[in-house]
Structures are given as structure tokens and as C-alpha cells.
User: Fold this.
Amino acid sequence: MSPKTIIAPSILAADFSRLADEVGAIEGAADWVHVDVMDNHFVPNLTIGLPVVQSLRKATTIPFDVHLMITDPERWAPGYAEAGAHNVTFHAEACENPVALAKTLRAAGAKAGLAIDRDTSVEPYLELLPYIDTVLIMTIKAGFGGQKFMPEMLDKVRDVRRRVSAKDLSVRIEVDGGIAADTIAQAAEAGADAFVAGTAVYGADDPAEAIRKLRALAEAALPSHD
Ligand SMILES: O=C(CO)[C@H](O)[C@H](O)COP(=O)(O)O
Ligand SMILES: [Fe+2]
Assistant:
């Protein structure tokens, strides 16, 4: 059975010179490792790509939650599934046919995620939920870690949660950006059940303890979706 609450630390806030150690520090505490792939086209920032994911995959057993902030996800996303990513999430704004790409990812053995950036409405995508495993709602503008959480994004989380509950779908609702001890409960109350946290985990003295605290705060606030 999958855990009720997913905590996914983002290695965007980790020390890139010691990535395997940084992932080792959350082993046993994190549910997923969130990997932010940026191409300096879809977002104005450049991070890591497929070779790093392929190498890091061998360094841990924690499932990889790959967040592709790239143009042309059709070209690159399947490679991350083949590299062993558990979830491959691409942006709605960058993809012409999200259902086709989701099917390709599922056929390659990964879960398919659809990400919605700050300035995008979820409304046009609600009909696609049966084909998607995870909806990632940005609670910042995609592109950089360490930004301030935007509570106004939670209306999108509520909209997706309502549709998921009404149709009894098995879709994770993930929030990404500014998730920390003072924001995670609001996101959980709105209906999120997967939480990306970069700065709040890797900026802490004890990343594993930070994850445990975030999980406790989220679970105390989670409504029942039954
Ligand atoms: O997708 C992202 C940025 O576009 C990151 O996952 C996000 O910023 C996480 O970092 P933090 O918790 O520091 O906000
Ligand atoms: Fe992310």
C-alpha cells in the first residue's frame, strides 16, 4: 500500500558536489527524492539532466520523482523513465498532448505526472485526470528554489481534490515550492498528499528530522478523502 503522505525532498537545495551523500542523508525518512530538471528554455535556470539521474539512481533505493521543467518533454521524458524514475512529471504548458505522453511514460514503467505552473489554470486539465498518476501544483513560479509559498495556489489543489474525490480517481496531488513547517498544513488541508520540500529539508541541520516534522504536520492536517 502506498503511504498516506509523501514527503519528497528536492535536491535542488542540496550540495551538488556531494549528491550521493545528500541523498543518503534522507534514506529511511523520505518517500521520494525530487529531482528538478531545468533547461534554461522552459524556465530561466539550468540544473541537471539525464546523466546525473542515471548515476544517482545507482546510489539510492529511494524512488525518484523527476520534475521536468523543460521544453519538448516528449523528446526527453521517456529517457528518465528508462533510467528508473518512479514518477516523471512534465509541464502542461510545455506539452501538446499530455495524454499521449502520459501513456508513453506508463508504458515505459513510470508513473506519469502533470505539472501546472503558477500562471496556469487547472480547469482545462481536469478531464485528463484518469490518464495521470500525479498532478503537481506549483505553489511558486517554477524555476528557482527558496521562493515564498503562494497560498492563493491552493484553490487549484482544492479543485483537483474535488474532481479526484468525485470520480474516485487514484491521483496524487503534489505541491511544490515554499513548502515548510509553516506552510505544509495549509496545503494538506486543501487536499495535497505529496509535498516537495527543498530548502526546508536541505537547509535544516538534520534533514531526516526535518522530514519527520513535516510529515507529522501534514498528517495532523490531512482531511479524510474517503
Ligand atoms: O520545482 C522547483 C522550483 O521550480 C523546486 O522543486 C522547488 O523550488 C523546491 O524548493 P523549495 O522547497 O526551496 O521551494
Ligand atoms: Fe520541483
Observations:
- Strands lie at 6-9, 33-38, 64-69, 87-91, 111-116, 134-138, 172-176, 194-197.
- Residues 10, 34, 36, 67, 176, 196 surround fe (ii) ion (ligand 2) (CB under 6 Å).
